[in-house]
């Protein structure tokens, strides 16, 4: 616990940063009509009736004169896809509005498109706030788009992983002596994976294919002309070991073909029929994903993908890059 | 776009709610010394030097007189585990402090334990804010714990799924004609699952077990006395079909045993050796998870689990409850 005299500014900033926020861009125009805008996360709502919102601006900000004299400004709650825009408006000097097509607002302040929500305001109060000025604005107009919002926490961009409104249990609580629970990450990952695959498996059965053959086709769909060993280098981490017989079965179904390269090495390629079967599988995988996004909300699916990518990167056994150019 | 005269309060509230926030509990004492506290997400930082923070309180709040007259109050940035506390301090009437052991603060205001961060403040300014009063407080002391913070967005609790500081790609960008990309949810789930399982597989090999036998032991570890059909009902969604021969192999390794119930039905139970093997597997699964939590941060792992549970619930083909009491 620190007393103000000994406040470590970095520690204080870090403690404040644990309070999660959205990210906004706030825009106005200078007296000369030049559009200006800054990234801010000090926004918050104040009052419903009258409709008021607030944010704070550093007293040494170059944009302070403009915001102090121009009474109209717009708050843009940024969408998850607008991280780059956030970075651009947080930096100094560049032409922040280059290439941005503005929407028409009710006042002179620039109105950015594709945000989660927008509040068009006029200054109601300017309050003293230490090294910042607190701007309280009356909201004259607002709109929102349904885009998942960008989140900021402890200096990092983030997405919200929303909790269910009531506690979600997949199964009855385990007996106390049972150390295998539904909260085990490995269980949740496995169950999620196999349930997603389950739908696909029905299509595979119709195509007279098993999971192993599906993996092989997926790999050849991304990268052709692979040897049996190369296929196994890509698929090995799943625990499957592809045999020459499995490849022969796919050849007999005319889904893949075997070619000899200049060195006489056998390499496998997709046939037109194989490519078609693979496209059907990808289409179904995408349909399953769309169904999930419908139930979970698009923002939550984005958050899930971010976390899965980080997990995959953190547990990567050093797999070769399937998509790398050759 | 709405003009203020036609503001739909519900739509306005919903648009404001898209701005993500943390969740705080703000406490003080009445003139009589009674502890009071409310849940608020209108908190934000204002100034570093002097250290100032702000939040807004409805003018019709029952706690307004106390906050207006008592100059000391504490802001608690709630941790993910404090969702129930948030609910309790958001509700009216109950004894909010019942069972809460308070920490010692520098002033009279109650100081709650186990938060992500805490700011002990004294009122610097009280500002007019429509139907709310804006309290600006000077921070006299603060601390933070490293607990992952609770998040609030569009009326729902959430956790932050933090993005990597630089864009994370697992592989080179796919060629434009390739519709199979690393962003496919099914690919990410499969890769995450198999990579996590990969570590476990090395232990299984040492135990002379394959994946199928691992699944069987896991199921019998949770629920004993199952028939072959019942085992298959639990494991079927993984695509595996357990045969009598597989069970016989486990019997020969003395990991499971077969018993006849009163009706003469064959039911499988774990042996002491099987239970031991299973406990080793669970211990390793937990160690793998701890390693991941180390790399991803505990809060992100919590967020991942929430999302995976929601995904599993959304794609559940109607699996029987493995943990249900009988």
Automatic annotation (TrEMBL), chains A, B:
<dbReference type="InterPro" id="IPR050268">
    <property type="entry name" value="NADH-dep_flavin_reductase"/>
</dbReference>
<dbReference type="InterPro" id="IPR036390">
    <property type="entry name" value="WH_DNA-bd_sf"/>
</dbReference>
<dbReference type="InterPro" id="IPR036388">
    <property type="entry name" value="WH-like_DNA-bd_sf"/>
</dbReference>
<dbReference type="InterPro" id="IPR012349">
    <property type="entry name" value="Split_barrel_FMN-bd"/>
</dbReference>
<keyword id="KW-0503">Monooxygenase</keyword>
<dbReference type="Pfam" id="PF01613">
    <property type="entry name" value="Flavin_Reduct"/>
</dbReference>
<keyword id="KW-0560">Oxidoreductase</keyword>
<feature type="domain" description="Flavin reductase like">
    <location>
        <begin position="16"/>
        <end position="159"/>
    </location>
</feature>
<dbReference type="InterPro" id="IPR002563">
    <property type="entry name" value="Flavin_Rdtase-like_dom"/>
</dbReference>
<comment type="similarity">
    <text>Belongs to the non-flavoprotein flavin reductase family.</text>
</comment>
<dbReference type="GO" id="GO:0004497">
    <property type="term" value="F:monooxygenase activity"/>
</dbReference>
<protein>
    <submittedName>
        <fullName>3-hydroxy-9,10-secoandrosta-1,3,5(10)-triene-9,17-dione monooxygenase reductase component</fullName>
    </submittedName>
</protein>
<dbReference type="GO" id="GO:0042602">
    <property type="term" value="F:riboflavin reductase (NADPH) activity"/>
</dbReference>
<dbReference type="GO" id="GO:0010181">
    <property type="term" value="F:FMN binding"/>
</dbReference>
């Amino acid at each position: 616990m620190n007393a103000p005299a000994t406040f470590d500014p970095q520690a204080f900033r870090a403690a404040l940063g644990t309070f999660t926020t959205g990210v906004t861009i706030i825009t106005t125009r200078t007296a000369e009509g030049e559009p200006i805008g800054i990234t801010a996360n000090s926004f918050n709502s104040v009052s419903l009736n009258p409709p008021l919102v607030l944010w704070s601006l550093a007293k040494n900000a170059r944009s302070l004169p403009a915001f102090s004299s121009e009474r109209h400004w717009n708050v843009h709650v940024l969408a998850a896809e607008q991280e780059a825009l956030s970075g651009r408006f947080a930096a100094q000097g560049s032409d922040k509005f280059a290439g941005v097509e503005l929407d028409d607002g009710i006042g002179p302040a620039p109105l950015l498109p594709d945000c989660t929500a927008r509040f068009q305001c006029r200054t109601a109060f300017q309050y003293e706030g230490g090294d910042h000025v607190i701007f309280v604005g009356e909201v004259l107009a607002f709109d929102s788009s349904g885009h998942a919002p960008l989140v900021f926490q402890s200096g990092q961009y983030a997405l919200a992983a929303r909790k269910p409104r009531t506690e979600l249990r997949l199964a009855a609580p385990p007996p106390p002596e049972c150390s295998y629970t539904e909260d085990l990450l490995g269980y949740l990952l496995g169950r999620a994976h196999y349930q997603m695959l389950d739908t696909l498996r029905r299509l595979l059965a119709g195509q007279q294919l098993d999971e192993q053959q599906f993996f092989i086709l997926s790999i050849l769909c991304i990268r052709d002309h692979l040897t049996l060993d190369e296929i196994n280098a890509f698929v090995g981490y799943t625990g499957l070991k592809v045999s020459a017989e499995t490849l022969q079965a796919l050849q007999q179904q005319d889904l893949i073909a075997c070619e000899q390269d200049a060195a006489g090495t056998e390499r496998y390629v997709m046939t037109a029929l194989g490519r078609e079967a693979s496209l059907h599988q990808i289409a179904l995988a995408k349909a399953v994903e769309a169904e999930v996004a419908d139930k979970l909300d698009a923002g939550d699916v984005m958050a899930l993908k971010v976390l899965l990518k980080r997990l995959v990167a953190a547990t990567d056994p050093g797999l070769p890059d399937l998509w790398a150019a050759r």
